[in-house]
Design a protein that fits this description.
Elements (H helix, E strand, L loop, with lengths): L4 H8 L3 H14 L5 H20 L8 H9 L1
Length: about 70
């Protein structure tokens, strides 16, 4: 299906908040989790990582060392 150029122009004329809301509606149409679902998932992931760190199952890396390693 070819995108209707006139529709695209109209959508791009929307304000930033309206475009963001449209993105959320379109994302939901694919069955993807909404912002609330993503926030909840990241919250669970953060708690899991904190728990792993506190039990010693997850260590830390010095940021300066990591950046040097990435830079090569």
């Amino acid at each position: 299906m070819k995108t209707d150029a006139r529709l695209v122009r109209q959508l791009l004329e929307l304000g930033a908040l309206e475009r963001a809301e449209l993105i959320e509606v379109l994302q939901a149409s694919f069955g993807a989790p909404g912002v609330e679902g993503l926030d909840a998932a990241w919250g669970l992931e953060a708690e899991s990582r904190i728990d792993a760190y506190e039990t010693g199952a997850l260590g830390t890396v010095d940021a300066a060392d990591l950046l040097r390693k990435i830079a090569g």
